[in-house]
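Hey, can you fold this one?
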Amino acid sequence: MSRVLRSLAAAAVGLAAFTVASPAHAEPATTALQSAHVQFLADDTHPSDLLVDVSSRAGVTTLDVEWYSQTCQNAGDTWSCDYVWRGAFGVTPTVFDFSLRSTTVVAVVTYRETHYTCSFDGEQETCTDRVDAGTATTDLTVTWTATERTTTSIYRDDNGVLCIDRVNRAPATGSAFDETFVGREQISALSQNRRIG
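Sure. Predicted structure:
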């Protein structure tokens, strides 16, 4: 075999070895987080406040719920308020149907309840220790319906990961703890966050 042919053969073997040893080009990893949030605010007519947060990533959906109510009365210059707090975290919903236009969550929530009292004399507030009132369950349903266009933000984070955030301010209605939350002042949103890279 001529020197030229031997050189070409060696080069071909080396190229084949490089091709086998080199890893295939990987597509950038993509993660997506879908979330829905609402806080129904207490007012003069409705003394209770309900906070609902739902998030879903890679097929795992969790629900956090907090509810509280307060009843206040004054005697002279002193105010006294009785509080009831109910909370549950990391609940798995039975339904989470998500889109940026309309989203529904349904869950049977087992929550813990605590009671405490705070007094305020105009200068100082004092509160009793929280008293555990045990656990109970409630059926929760919340529906978000978008009334505005979705806003989109595209940027790279400090690690160079491409981020695409889409948010819609979607009013919500719902029911839980033997209450219906309709027409209530609220803070609410639907969001979808994608990370590429």
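Helices lie at 3-21. Let me know if you want another pass with a different chain boundary.
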